[in-house]
Every structure is written in structure tokens, then in C-alpha cells.
Amino acid sequence: MGTRKGTAVTRSVRKRTEGVPRLAVWKFASCDGCQLTLLDCEDELLSVAAEVEIAYFLEASSAPGPGPYDLSLVEGSITTPEDLERIQHVRRVSKHLVTIGACATAGGIQALRDFGDVREFAAVVYARPGYIATLDRSTPISANVPVDFELRGCPIDKRQLLEVISAFLAGRRPVVPAHSVCVECKARGNACVMVAHGTPCLGPVTQAGCGALCPAFDRGCYGCFGPMESPNARALNKQLRALGMSTPELVRVYRTFNATAEPFRQASESAENSREADDDA
Amino acid sequence: MTHKTIKVGSLSRVEGEGALTVHARDGRVTGMELRIYEPPRFFEALLRGRSHTEPPDITARICGICPVAYQMSACQAVEAACGIEVSGPLRDLRLLLYYGEWIESHTLHIYLLHAPDFLGYESGVAMAADHRDLVEHGLALKKAGNELVAAIGGRPIHPVNVKVGGFYRVPTRAELAPVAERLRHARDIARETVSWVAGFDFPDVDHDYTFLALRHPDEYAILSGSIATSTGEAFAVEEWPAHVTEAQVPYSTALHARLDGEIGYLVGPMARYSLNSAQLCESARQAAADAGLGADCRNPFRSIIVRAVEVLHACEKALRIIESYTEPETPAIPFEYRATTGHGASEAPRGTLYHRYRVDIDGSIAEADIVPPTAQNQARMETDLLQLVEPRLHLPTDELAALCERAIRNYDPCISCSAHFLDLHVDAQ
């Protein structure tokens, strides 16, 4: 993990083939939702298409163009032996590689296998699990190849996606804040669901980007954008316990779509071992 | 001619990852593999031990194209286990959310994935170079669907506002007013879309399908109902496991479904239309008639017309719900969980989506079972391909491969969905 602040974008990608940068979109283990976000940019899609050559995007086009590509957007996590090879290929043919979403950035919901036994998982789902080629772990792209930028979210936010594409086209770093959802709640004028209603909320440890959506719907944040920069999960856990959350509930709230992002993994494991409950006692 | 192999290495303009291989010898197809290599994600396994309140959010992540369908089938299965039923204005809100997803998902398929086949383009974006207005209309229609989902669910992909028993917060009338405004415009585009796609040139195909879809006494079934088939079968959703079974095939991470032991039934827009078209709203029925659709639709190439008719229906119904909307008194109905099994099914854009959960005494999920539409259609798609390919083996391989890929796209397969479900043969009973 942790190449989010990685390679600085110093050169413009707008230099190749008569000034038209080439975009590729790749899928690994995922739900398709993050790449769909690109097609969901209804007002901007045709403008984006005028600025870049969408050279490889299987979900949208039956004429995949050959590499290399100036910007590759990668959705999904690595879970099969074939995909271990394929991501190396993607890196080789990509000048810039940006991961989109929780699967590509943190392993996704399928990384829950890390806390269990994937053979047993396969046996539950398939009568003949021997036909199923799968890895023991679901890893983020950055665990396999260098990544130039990681865009968070399950799913990603379309405004942030457009910002990332624009930034790479302009040769600058994307402006994507690493602060918590709490900041967005304040900006939006939401009442704090934890203070006002006693609703457990992961907002204090979760990275912004959604626009504080859940609190705006009277719901606690469930962490789908993954951990913010330097979260204080221990302090939050104390508060969540005070609101009546049991240890299994506390473990589960961190083990969803970003379960193996390191700060969330640590938060769930320390809750599980009840270390902090003892420490705080 | 002796041997011939037709390969489509990576299917494009479909959701998820798949490939097709057809082997032929002396004018006969000797092998057909619609291979789904989408990596398995083991949802049914990882749901075990989670709280009974979690399936709506977790199973939404099976598919980014139809998360609402997963949330609705999951909610209803858990609610059935808990002995509650969401009705009245809360049910209307669920319908509204679901109509939004139908509009968004169908329009994506019509304009960006399917229409390019009929007009000879590689993509919707390429099509826009010559038909900018047309594609912009399609995008506006799609946007109206997404905005409807977002108005109720918070965002179009993986909405945050759905929970077992109802919603976290219900929208105000004022929040829905701008959505209605856009839907009125969308309805006009939807009507034009039906006539536009009806004018396409369709290969002459007529399959002898067994259709399966939900049927509801009061509406063109989308959110709930009982199961109906074109063979006259009718059964309650709870009886699903007694009728539908699945088997694994070595070349695919999706399982093949059978209905009462028979392989190859079909779910989806053609099934819904053929079984329930009398319940479409009047303007959708009229548009269907004008487009030349009869009492049923057995040509998969014409499924694009059925999708367009369903989009028009969804726009009309959504508008009616918004017009008569009054805020429900509570956003969700209270309930206590029970240690029992619940079944739920709804009509995802691609067809019937079934969920079953066994809730344990501590309120956790003991067992989960999900049967997505594409898994049910896979065997039938293979049969169709066989019937399509065999009489055309004289065609150049490239041409045949392109035709096969088109034939697959007719079904709007969602491969992301189909790779994640449980084999009913596991010692579950």
C-alpha cells in the first residue's frame, strides 16, 4: 500500500501522436462500477472523448487499440494467477497508471478472504472448487506494480475522476484532499450524526471525497473511501464503544470495502483483540 | 472445409470479462464454450457471519451496473426472514429507485453498448462523431435515470440510503420536484428511442424460448411478485430452490441454471415482455405496438426495442409516483430478526435476481445464496449461438465471430454478476 502520494506528475501526457493522449481502462476483480463512473459522466463524456483517444476500454468499445497508453485507469484487485501477469503487462504499456476505487486501491470486499481461508470460500460457492484458479489473497494494484495515483471510493466519485483525468492531461498533480469526511460534513452543513443522534460513524477516520453523503442521509459513514491520512481509530473506537457498539460490530465496520487498507486492518484487529478496551480501562 | 475455430478473445461492450470459443467440423458445431473468466469473488462465503442488516450494502458490490437490484432482492429476502413486508409509500419509494436503475442501465445498453452494432460503429463514442444529437439524447435519458437513483439513494452507483425495513431518510417532495422535471423530458426521449430502435435492421431469428419472470397482480413486475413461466408454471419465490438448480461447468466461473431439470430457460426483458406486456402502462403498450412488437418477443436482436419500451414504462410510472408522493411517516419499519430462512426476488434490468439468507440465532447470516440473471441465461445463450452459427459456417471466420459477439450482446450479459454465486447443490438442504 501507500503509493498514493507516489510519483509526481511532472510531464504532460499530451505529447504523443499529434497531441492526442491515449487513455486505457482496465478491469481486474471488481464490480464494473468505477469504470462505469466514466460512462456516467453524461455531461462530460463527449468532451473527454474529444480531448483523449479512448484507446482501450472493453466495456465501451469493440475496437481495442494497441499500447502504449499515456494514462491507464485500473479497476479491480489482483486475485488470480493470470491477473498477476496481466497487471505487469498493463504497467509496461502505461506511461501513467492510476487505480480507481477500493478494489484497486485496497483489495476491495473480496479481500475479506484475507481473514478466512479462500479454499474453504471456494468450496462453499463451487461444487468442484478445483476448477477455480484463485489466489489466497486479494491485493491492491500497488502491491504488484508501481502506481502513479490512487483514487479512492466504493465507488469513486465522478467529480474526482474528472479532476484526475484533467490533472494528468495538464501534467499536474490531482487536487484530491486526504482529510476526513468530517471536514465535508462541516462544509455541507450536516449536523454531526454521532453528536446529534448517537449514530456510530466512521467519518472521523475516513477520507473525504463522497461529499459526506451518508450523514446527509441520516446515516453514519461506513468508510467506503478508506482511511484518511493519519486516522486516530483508537479514539474513535472508544467513542463507538461508548455508543454501545460490541466488539464484533466494531470489527465488522472496518472489514467491508477497504478491510485490508492498513489503518483499517489495524483498527479491526485491535478491536478484535480488545487491546484498546483493556488499555483504556 | 474440415475444422474451423471461431474465437472471440475478450467480449467487448458487456459488463465484465468473458470469451467465446466455437469449434466446428464438417459443417457441424462440435463444441461451444462461453467462458466466463471474471475472477470469482466469493460473496456467498464472505457474507457468512455478517449481520442480517448488511446484505444490501455488501451484495450491491457484486454489480456496479445494477446495485439497486441487489439491494432490493437482499432487503426483501432478509425482511421475509424477519416476517415483515415493506408496503405503501415506502414500497413506492423503492419502486421509484428501481425505475431509476432500469432507465439508467437500459439506456446505457441501448445507446452505448447495443445500438453501435446496428449502425456499424465500434462504440457509442465513435457513433457520436456522426450522430452527436442522438448520443446526447441517450446520455440525457441515462442521466435522468441516474439522477432519480441519486435523489433517493444518494448516488447512482452503490446507493447509501437503502436498508432492511426501508430507508435511512426519505426524500422531501421538494427534493423530488427537479427530478420530475427531468423525467418529463426523459419520457419524450424514451418515446423517440422506441421508434428509433424499431427502425433498425434485424436479422430474422425466432427462438423457442422458455421464459421466466416475476409476475405481480397490480403491476408490470419489477420489485416483487411470484414466479411465472411461459410453460404455465407458477410458484412463490420461497419455492425457488425446489424449481431452480445449478451446475458447474469446467470452463466458467459462472454456474448453469436449470428450471425443473430443464436447461436453458431465459430471464430478462424479453421474458418480462412476453409474460407481462398486458401490464405495461398505456403509452408503453402503444409504443410497443407501433414498433411492431407482438404479444411476445422471440428474436433476441429485437430485445433492444423491448428495453426501450421498458424505459418508457419506467419514466411514466416514476412520474406518477412522484406526482402523488407524500412523505412516509417513518423512513423504515421497525423489526426484530428471527432465526429462519428468507427468500427474495426482484427484476434486475437483466432479469430475475434471487437471494436467500438463513439468519442464525445471533442475527448473523449463516448461509447465503444468490442467483443472478446472467447465470440463468448462460446456457440459453450457448444454445442460441449454436443455432446461429451452424447454418452460417460458410461465412468468413471474422464475420462469424463478430456476429457471435453481437448475439451475446443481445442479452446484455452482466458477467461481473454471474461469476459470484453459490451452487445450490452444496449440502444446503
From TrEMBL, chain A:
One Gene Ontology molecular-function label: oxidoreductase activity
Keyword Nuclease: no
Highest taxon, organism lineage: Bacteria
Keyword presence, Oxidoreductase: yes
All residue ranges annotated as the NADH:ubiquinone oxidoreductase-like 20kDa subunit domain in the record: 31-167
Pfam families with a match to the protein in the record: Oxidored_q6
Keywords for the protein's UniProt record, in alphabetical order: Oxidoreductase
PANTHER family hit by this protein: COENZYME F420-REDUCING HYDROGENASE, GAMMA SUBUNIT, F420-NON-REDUCING HYDROGENASE VHU SUBUNIT G
Protein name in the entry: Oxidoreductase
Organism from which the protein derives: Planotetraspora phitsanulokensis
Source species taxonomy: Bacteria, Bacillati, Actinomycetota, Actinomycetes, Streptosporangiales
Automatic annotation (TrEMBL), chain B:
Binding residues annotated for Mg(2+), in chain numbering: 44, 370, 420
Entry protein name: Ni/Fe hydrogenase subunit alpha
UniProt entry tagged with the keyword Nucleotide-binding: no
Species classification: Bacteria, Bacillati, Actinomycetota, Actinomycetes, Streptosporangiales
Keyword Hydrolase: no
Highest taxon, organism lineage: Bacteria
One Pfam family this sequence matches: NiFeSe_Hases
Family affiliation: Belongs to the [NiFe]/[NiFeSe] hydrogenase large subunit family.
Needed co-factor(s): Ni(2+); Fe cation
Organism: Planotetraspora phitsanulokensis
InterPro entries found in the cross-reference section: Ni-dep_hyd_lsu (IPR001501), Ni-dep_hyd_lsu_Ni_BS (IPR018194), NiFe-Hase_large (IPR029014)
List of residues binding Ni(2+): 63, 66, 414
Residues that bind Fe cation: 66, 417
SUPFAM superfamilies: HydB/Nqo4-like (SSF56762)
Residues annotated as transmembrane: none
Listed GO MF terms: ferredoxin hydrogenase activity; nickel cation binding
Keywords annotated in UniProt: Iron, Magnesium, Metal-binding, Nickel, Oxidoreductase
